[in-house]
UniProtKB/TrEMBL annotation, chain A:
Keywords: ATP-binding, Cell membrane, Membrane, Nucleotide-binding, Translocase, Transport. It comes from the Bacteria. InterPro entries: AAA+_ATPase, ABC_transporter-like_ATP-bd, ABC_transporter-like_CS, ABC_transpr_MalK-like, ABC_transpr_MalK/UgpC-like, Mo/tungstate-bd_C_term_dom, NA-bd_OB-fold, OB_MalK-like. SUPFAM superfamilies: MOP-like, P-loop containing nucleoside triphosphate hydrolases. This is ABC transporter ATP-binding protein. Residues 4-235 form the ABC transporter domain. GO terms for molecular function: ATP binding. Pfam families: ABC_tran (PF00005), OB_MalK (PF17912). PROSITE patterns: ABC_TRANSPORTER_1, ABC_TRANSPORTER_2. The keyword Signal does not apply. The keyword Metal-binding does not apply. Signal peptide: none annotated.
Automatic annotation (TrEMBL), chain B:
It is found in: Cell membrane. PANTHER family: INNER MEMBRANE ABC TRANSPORTER PERMEASE PROTEIN YCJP, MALTOSE TRANSPORT SYSTEM PERMEASE-RELATED. This is Sugar ABC transporter permease. Keywords: Cell membrane, Membrane, Transmembrane, Transmembrane helix, Transport. It is a multi-pass membrane protein. Belongs to the binding-protein-dependent transport system permease family. Coiled coil: none annotated. The chain crosses the membrane at residues 7-28, 66-85, 97-118, 130-153, 174-197, 236-255. Residues 62-255 form the ABC transmembrane type-1 domain. InterPro entries: BP-dep_ABC_trans_perm, MetI-like, MetI-like_sf. Pfam families: BPD_transp_1.
């Protein structure tokens, strides 16, 4: 077990692509860290550099305090689980799992014991003499995990290990992975672009975009206090609503009406651009009729036509279209492209996704009064994506004094 | 429908096999009955086989054939494996050109190279030596080897090599224990193809040799005489032809499963 430190690590591929730039990251001993980001942002490259499968162009990588930039993968004592599982097709499950132990020149009895133990943990005992070709996807995945855990490495690296499984199995395996990591207490770096995995699995989540770290933090912290537009839009499902806003007469002019701003944000706005973006999560809306007096003061109300109601039983997802400009920025376009939504027709105006209480009597096609919590609204600078409501790492809404 | 296909198959098989059967039949006939036109010999004899193995000419040619074909195959497959590994694995400048040129060589009409090669080999003093045949065989079989092998290597998932390295293997161990077993069927396939090419060649064998020193069987056949100068050598030639066909048939039968396994090894993918 060991801690892993990346110190200004960059990667430039021979063809000139800079896949990773100046990444600083400290992973504590025993920690479960998730790297998440859109496709092509450099997650696998970071992982491969930690593994030693890719050279580090500049910067230092330290494992257990020791600089390992120039060490071969086999001298780093790290195990890796690949997206393709990479099981050796010519070997049985037992031989696959014994392979790292055989290379480490352990004696036969020890190898058998370790393989059997790992197989028991992963419920592979009955499959030990099969070839990988005769296993199901989930079983192959478990063999790949088994091969990684047999030799008690200093750390596990996993590159989208669950992405080849179907949705149901993925949920099951997620708990297997998580339990296994808790039990072994081995430092783990896990790459995914599934944000549910990111939110549920790790102790900390690292959000990567275009080769640079955007924010590192516990899942809840990233959700509540996103450092920038990209993180705000990436974390959360359905994702945060973004609307265009401009400052006029000391208030924020938006499609939801003019919103008051507190002194803290006002102080920041003196040198901020005229055009801004506000971000509101779906759960920070509520049916105005259901908001009590005390809460009402913390927010503001607006009226908009209801486009669609999806009842989930526990709550209702209600879609509105509001008049006004749509928010635009490079980050938002990238997020839309990653979600595959860049060319969905959006019609005029901006779309809002809200999550209202199940008791709401909201009806499709009618105009409805909706309340929004001002203490939870984020304000972003579209030129650099920075979250203007963030103060000492905490977001406090636009009305904070 | 099935019947018609069966019939068609039978026609094709008979068409292809008749000349072979005829030669086999000739090889078992006595000199007297050679020209009787019967497919099944009226008098069976092993005399022809005895004759060819007694003549130094044939045995010597057989040794040449085996030696030259084996050496050429080994070298071509080893070089081809390395080149194909590079073509499949690495991105290097001139990769397209390499593949293109090797295709070009494979397409080149060999006949047009025979007289220049003759002159060159005379100058270099390798005319009528094993080396004089091995070199052109390698030249013309290497593209074939590179081609089949690189198609093969491209199907091997390279994550396996990375996984082996992570599991603690050196580069050499990763190749030996993980990649080589998967590549073996491909190497077998191309070795067989190359061997058959060298074994069957007549053009170079006849043009670049002048004595028994390096003449291979296909070339030597045309110089055959019977047991004595004045005997009709047809029986002996047929027997020799049968003898040199046997290794090929054995090869193909024996490795057939391997070849097929090789050609479908894409199935290894998880
Ligand atoms: N061998 C290479 N040579 C040149 N560029 C590369 C190479 N490998 C990756 N890249 C580039 O580096 C960037 C990061 O790639 P990487 O594989 O790390 O992305 P990723 O975040 O893992 O994406 P995904 O989620 O799709 O796996 C991409 O733009 C990619 O095109
Ligand atoms: Mg990747």
């Amino acid at each position: 077990m060991a801690d892993i430190v990346l110190d200004k690590v960059s990667k430039k591929y021979p063809d000139g692509t800079v896949a990773v730039r100046d990444v600083d990251l400290e992973i504590a001993d025993g920690e479960f860290v998730i790297l998440v980001g859109p496709s092509g942002c450099g997650k696998s490259t970071i992982l491969n550099m930690i593994a030693g499968l890719e050279d580090i162009s500049s910067g230092d990588l330290r494992i257990d305090g020791e600089r390992v930039n120039d060490k071969a993968p086999r001298d780093r004592d790290i195990a890796m689980v690949f997206q393709s599982y990479a099981l050796y097709p010519n070997m049985t499950v037992r031989e696959n799992m014994a392979f790292p132990l055989r290379l480490a020149k352990l004696d036969k009895a020890t190898i058998d014991e370790k393989v059997n133990d790992a197989a028991k943990v992963l419920e592979l005992t009955a499959l030990l003499d099969r070839k990988p070709a005769n296993l199901s996807g989930g079983q192959r995945q478990r063999v790949a995990m088994g091969r990684a855990i047999v030799r008690n490495p200093k750390a596990f690296l996993m590159d989208e290990p669950l992405s080849n499984l179907d949705a149901k199995l993925r949920v099951q395996m997620r708990t297997v992975v998580s339990r296994l990591q808790r039990r072994l207490g081995t430092t783990t770096v896990y790459v995914t672009h599934d944000q549910t995995e990111a939110m549920t699995l790790g102790d900390r989540v690292v959000i990567v975009r275009a080769g640079a770290i955007q924010q590192v933090g516990e899942p809840q912290q990233l959700y509540d206090h996103p450092a920038n537009l990209f993180v705000a839009g990436f974390i959360g499902s359905p994702s945060m609503n973004f609307l265009h806003a401009s400052v006029a007469d000391g208030r924020l002019r938006t499609a939801l009406g003019d919103l008051p701003i507190g002194s803290r944000v006002r102080g920041l706005l003196s040198d901020a651009p005229e055009n801004l973006i506000i971000g509101i999560r779906p759960e920070h809306f509520e049916d105005a009729a259901l908001v009590d007096e005390a809460a009402r003061a913390k927010g503001t109300e607006f009226e908009a036509p209801v486009e669609l109601v999806e009842s989930m039983g526990s709550d209702k997802y209600v879609y509105f279209t509001v008049e006004g400009e749509r928010a635009t920025s490079a980050e938002l376009e990238e997020l839309a492209a990653d979600a595959g939504a860049s060319d969905l027709p959006t019609g005029g105006g901006a779309n809002l996704v809200t999550r209202l209480s199940a008791e709401s009597a909201v009806k499709e096609g009618e105009n409805w009064r909706v309340w929004v919590n001002l203490e939870k609204i984020h304000l972003f600078d579209p030129s650099n994506g920075r979250n203007l409501t963030l103060h000492e790492g905490r977001a406090a809404g636009v009305t904070a004094e | 429908m099935k019947l018609r296909w069966g019939l068609l198959d039978a026609v094709v098989v008979v068409f292809a096999l008749l000349p072979v059967l005829w030669i086999v039949s000739l090889s078992f006939k006595t000199t007297a009955t050679l020209t009787d036109g019967n497919l099944i010999p009226r008098e069976w004899t092993l005399e022809n086989y005895r004759t060819i193995f007694q003549t130094d000419q044939f045995v010597r040619a057989l040794v040449n054939s085996i030696g030259i074909a084996l050496i050429s195959t080994t070298i071509a497959v080893v070089l081809g494996t390395m080149a194909a590994y590079a073509v499949a694995r690495l991105d290097f400048p001139g990769k397209g050109a390499l593949v293109g040129v090797s295709l070009l060589i494979a397409m080149f009409p060999q006949v047009s190279l025979v007289s220049p090669l003759f002159d060159i080999e005379r100058q270099l003093g390798i005319f009528d030596t094993w080396l004089g045949l091995i070199l052109p065989y390698i030249t013309f079989s290497l593209p074939l080897a590179i081609y089949t092998l690189s198609a093969f290597f491209k199907q091997i998932p390279w994550d396996l090599e990375k996984a082996a390295k992570m599991d603690g293997a050196t580069q050499a161990q990763a190749f030996r224990k993980v990649i080589a077993p998967l590549a073996a069927p491909g190497v077998f396939t191309s070795a067989i193809l190359v061997f058959i090419f060298c074994w069957n060649d007549f053009l170079f064998a006849i043009s670049l040799t002048s004595t028994e020193r390096s003449r291979t069987v296909p070339a030597a056949l045309s110089f055959f005489t019977g047991a004595s100068q004045f005997e009709d050598p047809t029986g002996a030639i047929s027997a020799a032809a049968v003898v040199i066909t046997i290794p090929i048939i054995l090869f193909v039968l024996f490795f057939q499963r391997r070849i097929v396994a090789g050609l479908t090894s894409g199935a290894v993918k998880g």
